[in-house]
Amino acid sequence: MRIRKKARRFAVLIQIIHPNSLNKMASVNKVILVGHLGKDPEIRNFENGGSICSFPLATKESYFDREKNQRIEQDTDWHNIRIGKPGLAKIAQQYLHKGSQVYLEGVIRYRSYQTKEGETKYITEIQVEEMTLLGSRPQGEGNNGRTEEAAAQVPQPMPTDDLPF
Questions:
Q1: Using an 8 Å Cβ cutoff, are 114 and 47 in contact?
Q2: Cβ contact 25:71 at 8 Å
Q3: Using CA atoms, how far apart are residues 91 and 44, in angstroms rounded to an integer?
Q4: With contact defined as beta carbons under 8 Å apart, do 37 and 96 qualify?
Q5: Is 37 in contact with 55 (CB distance < 8 Å)?
Q6: Paired strand residues for 121
Q7: Do 128 and 82 touch, CB atoms closer than 8 A?
Q8: Are 70 and 106 in contact (CB under 8 A)?
Q9: Helix, strand, coil shares of the chain as percentages rounded to 5?
Q10: Kindly report the CA angle at 102 between 55 and 43, in degrees rounded to 5?
């Protein structure tokens, strides 16, 4: 009886990893990048009301070499970023600038286009689905985006020195 249980478990294991079952597996196309903008975002507006934001993003990997006791920087990788969601494109246009640090999640897309000379060019892009702004705010954007006047109108806490008890 014990042998049958082991045989069943083994049969299930074989079935799970059998090459024929690999054809039924789903695939994943997901990219996560943290990097700095190479230039200010470019916005292209279309007649139908849509817009696309695009910019280059630089990423760099580094590691610590214990023998040399120093951080080793590897070459910079450049990625073509494309934001098609209207809300994200507007945020990118408003808050991102050359040198801004950003966290992006998206998918890899490949496309081709024809130049004016008739030559076919191929391009690899990251199509952004999620974006998080990183780093510090530029000067003048403190107080969670409020102006100096609005920050002055926020009620200040009562001093605790004058409590009657």
A1: no
A2: no
A3: 14
A4: yes
A5: yes
A6: 113
A7: yes
A8: no
A9: 25, 40, 35
A10: 30
Residue 121 and residue 133 in contact, taking contact as beta carbons nearer than 8 Å = no
b/e per residue, 84-102, with b = 16+ CB within 10 A? bbeebbebbbebbeeebeb
* Residues written for the chain: 165
Q: What residues contact 143, with CB distance under 8 A and at least 6 apart?
A: 150, 151
Q: How many Cα neighbours within 13 Å face the side chain of 119? A: 4
Single pTM value for the model:
0.64
In this structure, are residues 83 and 130 in contact, taking their beta carbons and an 8 Å threshold? no
How does pLDDT run along the chain (165 residues), one tens digit per residue?
455 554 554 444 444 555 555 566 688 999 999 999 999 999 998 888 888 999 999 999 888 888 988 888 888 999 999 999 988 998 999 999 999 999 999 999 999 999 999 999 999 999 999 999 997 766 555 544 444 444 444 444 555 555 554
